[in-house]
Design a protein that fits this description.
37% of the residues lie in helices and 17% in strands. It is of the alpha/beta class. The strands form two sheets. It has a six-stranded parallel beta sheet, sandwiched between helices. Bound molecules: adenosine-5-diphosphoribose.
Length: 245
């Protein structure tokens, strides 16, 4: 922890990239660990664009269940420590793979509705609390699922949760923003991700290839552990407040 705090003190531009592990202590299941969602469900049945085209009702039921579950979850000490850090340091910024909206809630709790951009996350995989038209792309606030599937008010197309499904490309504007944040950073905090899903997993490597360093916060080793300058083992909700103050 001493080495990590020294690295942080010596860094001018810090970027953080988070995964499902940072929300585990909020009660949100991860995807690949014990009890992870993909241990109990088949992603190809629920979280792919093919599944949505084949069986939109089932995919909508799955996301409606996840939305109702997430409504009972609160940001934890890890989200809050990151929000305070980026409000104070306002450096390179926060990138997340999570769609649960907990970073945004932590930032708004910390700074009020006008939370500056530096504390709000770049949501690489979208946000489950929003809808998007599968045809014209128009976004809309989510509504409770009714008897018929939600339709776009603009074009009448089928709406779907505004998240990146397997088999879809990420929004190039969002991806470019995340990559340039990582390239400009001299330190990347990689928190609670197994680092196996690309292109998100390449974000910390962009910092490394630009001459920066990586600090990993995880409960276990990952695909990035070997290239991390420091690997802090423990739950993010405990490690981050100690690391970031
Ligand atoms: N604190 C820190 N890390 C934790 C904690 C915790 N309390 N609990 C679990 N972890 C770690 C696990 O060790 C694992 O390395 O979090 C990581 C979770 O990995 P995944 O479940 O694979 O989640 P993630 O890396 O975010 O998945 C990436 O895959 O399914 C897609 O779109 C989905 O965004 C997701 C992407």
């Amino acid at each position: 922890m001493r080495d990590a705090r020294q690295l942080l003190a010596d860094s001018a531009r810090v970027v953080a990239m988070t995964g499902a592990g940072i929300s585990a202590e909020s009660g949100v299941p991860t995807f690949r660990g014990d009890g992870g969602l993909w241990r109990n469900y088949r992603p190809e049945d629920l979280a792919t664009i093919g599944a949505f085209r084949r069986d939109p009702e089932t995919v909508w039921e799955w996301y409606a269940w996840r939305r109702s579950f997430l409504a009972t979850c609160e940001p934890n000490d890890g989200h809050r420590a990151l929000a305070r850090f980026f409000l104070q340091r306002g450096t390179a910024g926060l990138v997340t793979q999570n769609v649960d909206g907990l970073h945004t809630r932590a930032a708004r709790d910390a700074a009020g509705e006008g939370a500056p951009h530096a504390a709000l996350p770049v949501e690489m995989h979208g946000a489950i609390a929003r809808d998007r038209c599968n045809d014209c792309g128009t976004r809309a606030e989510a509504e409770p699922l009714g008897d018929s599937l939600p339709r776009c008010a603009t074009c009448g197309g089928l709406r779907r949760p505004d998240v990146v499904l397997f088999g879809e490309m990420l929004d190039p504007v969002v991806l470019d923003r995340a990559q340039s944040m990582a390239e400009r950073a001299d330190l990347c905090l990689v928190i609670g991700t197994s680092a196996v899903v690309y292109p998100a997993a390449a974000i910390p490597l962009a910092t490394l290839h630009a001459g920066g360093r990586i600090i990993e916060v995880n409960t276990e080793d990952t695909a990035l552990t070997g290239v991390a300058a420091v690997a802090l083992r423990g739950p993010a909700g405990v490690v981050l407040p100690e690391l970031l103050g």
